[in-house]
Design brief:
Layout (H helix, E strand, L loop, with lengths): L5 H28 L4 E19 L7 E17 L2 E5 L13 H7 L5 E6 L7 E2 L8 H33 L6 H28 L3 E9 L3 E4 L11 E13 L2 E12 L7 H7 L7 E6 L7 E2 L2 H28 L2
Antiparallel strand pairs: 1-2, 1-4, 2-3, 4-5, 6-8, 6-10, 7-8, 8-9, 10-11
Helix pairs in contact: 1-3, 3-4, 4-6
Amino acid sequence: MPDLPWFVYAMLLAPLGLILVAAIVKTWQVREARNWPQAPGKVVTSVAEVREVTVLDDEREGGSRLESRNFANVTYEYSVGSRKLHNNRISIGEDLGNFQVAEKLAKYPAGSIVTVYYNPRHPDQALLERDLPKGLWGCLGIGTVIVLAIVLGSAFGLNQSYAYLARHIARPDLAGLVVGFGAFGLAIALFGLAMHRQASIERRWSVVPGKIKLSEMEEYREANEDSARRGTEMFGKRVFCTYSYRSVSYTSECARVATGSPSASNKMLQRLLSRYQDGASVEVYVNPDNPAETTLNPRGDGRIAYVLWGIAAIFAALAIFVATRGG
């Protein structure tokens, strides 16, 4: 085991711990829901809708921003005693949007009869599905093994690389710098490879016609490391594209642009938005396995991959230079 402070391992494994805690909580909720009584119900509305959700954004003051996502809004009615109730929750799992929208609408069309499971203590709390996704714990177990192997393997590999270089380069005190340059370059190269592969997949997606829609000017402040001072005030717009795939309408947020000027006629903002005129017709590349996932420019990520590989090559050259020239 590499000799690293405990908090380093804690930071690396914290995301995995949060996922496992969430899975345990959901499993407990499923066990509770198994004892809920059931009642016949009827789907009143079954449509796709766009909702604003809060997502993390460490580049903004406050650490979050709003993002538009597609949801399946399946509203059903049911009766408990003399009370007629309405709900739109489908399952125990949290719906984060942009996932299985068409599948849910097809499974619960308007007018269909459904079985509703409701909380006897709070009958207005109900759902249509009370089972966890099949194979959840199996996937989590495999994922845990993979994450542990990557984290511990990477730490061990870096430790061993440092020890090897310290014995074989002219300046042993620079071994850490060589390892740092090399590891950073490798990480960037792998990220570029992932983007290149994703771009090649996106180029094979289905192409449908769409329309551009621009948001109103939004105002926010950038995050500032100095807590005593506020970040720079920014003004920007969000670019949406609306499209239809297999008779379901979607709205996808495809770009964001921002400047430090509130003027909509700002030259930089005009130049960035020149490709996205409000109401313009565009070709939308749609992921057939998840139609809420789209792109307007599948070649863009491929070009960025080459830039990342160039940066990775620079870090590799720096590592070789420090290792052979001794700084």
